[in-house]
Amino acid sequence: MASIFERIGGSEAVAAVVDDFYDRVLADPLLSGFFANTDMGKLKAHQRSFVAAALGGPQTYRGKTMDEAHAGLGIQAEHFDAVVGHLVESLRKHKVAEDVIASIADALAPLKAEIVPSEVSA
Ligand code: HEM
């Protein structure tokens, strides 16, 4: 059974999706502010890491946990959903099949709880 990575079309197709996704996130006024102080190299790495998480690829990232990396940034559910929405649009643009897109969205869903702080009432 082909991996999601293979079903998208391998590294070239994935690179094209990452570029398109990156442009969409930066062009979205809801999201661009989060990355205002992030340099471009780091931002590219961020989008690759996001796509890698979506593809369930080998976990090569050895940095902070997702909740440590995003603590204090004020990321809300709507921001997480908007980022996932841009990825879905990029995948559609590159003619990825809808069932593959659905698997990708499923793979990202569990990260939402780590990245969006829960609303704990004081
Ligand atoms: C599956 C979802 C995501 C993954 C896998 C992911 C991954 C990462 C990683 C690996 C880092 C770097 C941590 C470090 O410096 O050690 C990071 C930082 C960051 N992430 Fe995410 N992220 C995700 C979702 C989001 C979302 C939804 C937003 C905002 C809308 C966001 C905004 C940021 C920002 C602003 C930083 C700090 C960048 C900087 O250092 O300037 N991330 N993320």
TrEMBL record:
The lineage of its organism: Bacteria, Bacillati, Actinomycetota, Actinomycetes, Streptosporangiales. The keyword Plastid does not apply. InterPro entries: Globin-like_sf (IPR009050), Globin/Proto (IPR012292), Hemoglobin_trunc (IPR001486), Hemoglobin_trunc_I (IPR016339). This is Group 1 truncated hemoglobin. It comes from Thermopolyspora flexuosa. Belongs to the truncated hemoglobin family. Group I subfamily. Keywords: Heme, Iron, Metal-binding, Oxygen transport, Transport. Its cofactor is heme. Heme binds at H46, H70. Binds 1 heme group per subunit. GO terms for molecular function: heme binding; metal ion binding; oxygen binding; oxygen carrier activity. It comes from the Bacteria.
